[in-house]
Design brief:
Layout: H1 2-41, E1 46-49, E2 52-55, H2 61-68, E3 73-77, E4 83-86, H3 88-94, H4 98-101, H5 115-125, E5 130-137, E6 143-155, E7 158-167, H6 169-184, E8 191-193, E9 199-202, H7 204-210, H8 214-217, H9 222-225, E10 227-230, H10 240-247, E11 251-252, E12 257-260, E13 266-269, E14 272-273
Length: 282
């Protein structure tokens, strides 16, 4: 009888202990689920990478407030380019919700033609300060020129890379306005294109010469607006704009060139074309 009573008592104690342990585990699980929901909603800055959890500590709150108040985009990146943290300004610049931006690769938001320049900048930024322009594409399909400043960062033994992103859109628009004003005042016809050979600018002299207005020619291929033939052979002449875009060097039209106007008229011309490079050499 005593053995049975002892066994029943031990069974009750084990059951009580298990129920207590289960309740504690349920409480801890609930706390973890609340934390995960906060992370996913952006209420807490944290990210799981493998077995590591990156999170902002309370002592860093003043720095977080400073970063959030910046007019520039800011982010902390893993060495592979994953966005660990970023401020709301970067989210606004790229037009991507904060919770979707965190955890993504920064390079996936860079315009394809700019990827090699970005990789070079980011690689340098893992070891030392690097700065340069890159064109990003927003979620809405808009391209945005951004100056990226990368520098290495280490905290609690973890190596990361910091990013400060400055929007260059207004500066570029101002530069384009000054550029257009200068070109408009030139006495010769001036035609400008993008890297695809699409017309982006005609000055007044070029409008009068070709018979096309700037409004009509925008987004059209340069070959459609600037059609040139050889006066003697009547064969199409090599397009100097296409040649410059292919070689990256200045070139001139062949002799005896005739420009075919929009109305079909022909005008003898002499022509030269040259590339314009940005600060990054592109």
């Amino acid at each position: 009888m005593e053995k049975k009573n002892a066994l029943a008592s031990e069974t009750r104690w084990t059951k009580t202990a298990l129920l207590k342990e289960n309740a504690e585990l349920q409480a801890r699980l609930g706390e973890m689920e609340d934390t995960l929901r906060a992370i996913k909603s952006g209420a807490v800055d944290a990210l799981f990478l493998g077995n590591q959890v990156f999170s902002l500590q309370g002592v860093e709150t003043p720095y977080r407030l400073l970063v959030e108040s910046m007019n520039e985009g800011a982010a902390t990146l893993a060495l592979d380019g994953t966005i660990l943290y970023c401020n709301q300004r970067l989210s606004t610049l790229l037009d991507i919700p904060l919770n979707l931006l965190i955890g993504s690769q920064l390079r996936q938001h860079v315009r394809t033609s700019e990827c090699s320049s970005f990789e070079e900048l980011f690689t340098q930024g893992r070891e030392g300060l690097s700065k340069g322009e890159c064109v990003f594409h927003t979620e809405g399909g808009v391209t945005r020129p951004i100056q990226c400043s990368f520098s290495p960062l280490e905290a609690r033994g973890v190596r990361t890379v910091s990013l400060v992103a400055t929007d260059l859109t207004d500066r570029k628009l101002a530069e384009q306005a000054r550029f257009a004003s200068t070109l408009s005042s030139i006495g010769d016809a001036v035609v400008a294109t993008d890297l695809n050979g699409t017309i982006t600018f005609l000055n007044t002299v070029a409008e009068n010469l070709t018979g096309w207005t700037l409004a009509e020619s925008l987004t059209k291929p340069a070959g459609e607006i600037f059609t040139v033939i050889n006066e003697q052979t009547r064969a199409a002449a090599a397009n100097p704009i296409a040649r410059v875009l292919k070689t990256g060097t200045a070139t001139r039209l062949e002799e005896h060139a005739l420009l075919i106007r929009k109305d079909g008229g022909e005008i003898p011309i002499d022509d030269s074309a040259a590339p314009i490079f940005n600060q990054g050499g592109n």
